[in-house]
Amino acid sequence: MSPRSARLARLSRSVTFSACHRLHSQSLSDEENLKLFGKCNNPNGHGHNYKVVVTVRGEIDPVSGMVMNLTDLKEYMQAAIMEPLDHKNLDKDVPYFSEVVSTTENVAVFIWDSLQKLLPQGILYKVEVHETEQNVVVYKGEETIVK
Predict the structure, then answer these.
(1) Is 131 a known active-site residue?
(2) Measured between alpha carbons, how far is 147 from 25 in angstroms, rounded to an integer?
(3) Max CA-CA distance within the chain?
(4) For 78, which DSSP code?
């Protein structure tokens, strides 16, 4: 009987949260912000129903048949995404965004970093943040550019 090869798989789970924000950079003047961000620079902000898809990857456990228990992934996503972001003003309620512009790209980075602190090391594969049906950011964490 030959040993069984390790089988790798990716497992995804999604959540939806609602939040408001204002695209505004402290490094730019009010005029520059308005020119760059347009209506998304509205002083009163605007909101989205964000959809987040988290994908983990790993070996399929030969005993459980799972890469990860979905109940555990759900709890990690609750702690890393829903609790800090759902029904919040990102710029005022989430300390991370007091210094970082709350673009969808930066929301994806925030979620990645938050999940990395909770998930078993090396299992997080990607975070997709759907700001609208047309606008999606995919972040995989390892892609950086040295300047």
Answers:
(1) yes
(2) 21
(3) 72
(4) I
From 131, 133, 142, 143, active-site residue: 131
> In what order do the strands lie in the sheet containing 88-89?
88-89, 8-21, 46-59, 124-130, 136-139
Catalytic residue check, 20: no
Verify whether residue 40 is a known catalytic residue: yes
- DSSP letter assigned to residue 99: T
Sequence ranges of the domains in the chain:
8-20+47-139
Stated as kind and residue range, the H or E segment containing 72 is helix 70-77
- Write the pLDDT tens digit of every residue in 9-64: 999 999 999 999 999 999 999 999 999 999 999 999 999 999 999 999 999 999 99
CATH superfamily of 8-20+47-139: 6-pyruvoyl tetrahydropterin synthase/QueD (3.30.479.10)
Q: Which of 87, 130, 142, 143 is catalytic?
A: 87
pTM of the model: 0.92
Q: Per the residue annotation, which of 32, 40, 105, 128 is the catalytic one?
A: 40
- Cα-based distances in Å from 97 to 14, 101, 119, 136: 23, 6, 23, 19
